[in-house]
Design a protein that fits this description.
It contains 15 helices and 14 strands. By secondary structure, it is of the alpha/beta class. The strands form three sheets. The protein has an eight-stranded mixed sheet with strand order 2-9-8-7-6-3-4-5, sandwiched between helices. The protein binds pyridoxal-5'-phosphate. Belongs to the class-I pyridoxal-phosphate-dependent aminotransferase family.
Amino acid sequence: MPQPATPPPPSDAAVPAAGVAAAAAAAAPTERFAARTAGMTASEIRALFAVASRPEVVSLAGGMPNLAALPLESLAAEVGNLVARDGQVALQYGSAQGVPALREQICEVMALEGIRADPDDVVVTVGSQMALDLVTRIYCDPGDVVLAEGPSYVGALGSFAAYQARVVHVAMDEHGLVPELLRDALRSLAAQGITPKLLYTIPNFHNPAGVTLAVERRAEVLEICASYGVAVVEDNPYGLLGFSGRTYPALRSLDRDVVYLGSFSKTFASGLRVGWALVPPAVRDRLVLAAESATLCPPSFTQMLVSRYLAGHDWRSQIKTFTEAYRERRDALLDALETHLPDGCTWNVPDGGFYVWLTVPEGVDTKAMLPRAVTARVAYASGTGFYADGFGTRQLRLSYCYPTPERITEGVRRLAGVLEAELDVMRTFGTPARPALGAGGPQTPSPSTP
Ligand SMILES: Cc1ncc(COP(=O)(O)O)c(C=O)c1O
């Protein structure tokens, strides 16, 4: 039987090797991270939620849905029934693609926006944020270009950064994404030999800009993307939250190749984390594989609860109740802005959703002003978080979804005081309270727009 080799005595040569190993062992764990994690900076959302939770601060910052109107008692009964009657299934692993009954119901929900879909093409995810992550994962290599409205949803920008995609913003006007600017961007990128992988768009009640893509522009946006071979990702968590009760035809209803993302976060309960992607059949299998590697399967329990809720409750009138509350809050915000804000501020009038996008007078830097606002007990989301390139210093997002109308009015009164103080400093010293990095409105392309 061969003898095990005797280990050689430690030699001088072994000492540096051990030293290297020791040095490697002493290296900070972060030094071993993959390069792509460099793009994962703390989103402003996290800081905002921390601030929002302080009771003395009126938070107009986060986009937390207002759940006060949910029928909690009947939901509690539903949860009890689910465990008692279907607990063996609800508490078990399920299909990676999602519970079949829920996928059928999701198709009924999407039909409200003109989408005719096959439940086989629906993939249930842990919130639409997960769908965004998975879609980016299967489409984007490092360095790939993604087109997105400027400004855009901070969580999407986070996913694009995490996969090292480069975001090129396309500006909006009061009717949403501007087709000519989209065409210009694509033409200019093509001249550099670049075909973007995706157009990421939020057509309805945009987060953060509050605007809706005009119906007449929808087919044009799709045609432009098709002619350049760019896939369209339509993110639509707010589409059913229109204040006039009107719904808009989804981009997906006009083109079956659109990747559509939906969510129950704003129309039912964000804490359940149930969202979905509707994808072309050619994309579905890859998406399911990506989902499987992320979570094995979405939680059976929350999916079945949503399914029971949709089957047993008048969810359409619940959405109406939500939108009535949001409209009342939007009105309170708009009234207060009109009454209290200094001259030189402009904002849009959203027809649904959660957000007003405010442009402040030249010279005011909303990010630099935020700590002073929080000291004055009001919080907002500063504009730069909604651009991938640091643009948006003159903008901020106000969310009216969560606080009561009275708190909203008080919050705007405090914000107006902070703005007045900034303007006073500028008037007195001829410079901003802190220098602004740049300026531009939501209608102005950010610098990276080619
Ligand atoms: C535009 C947009 N997309 C996606 C999401 C993520 O939603 P979910 O809760 O479904 O993950 C949000 C959440 O605020 C959003 O505003």
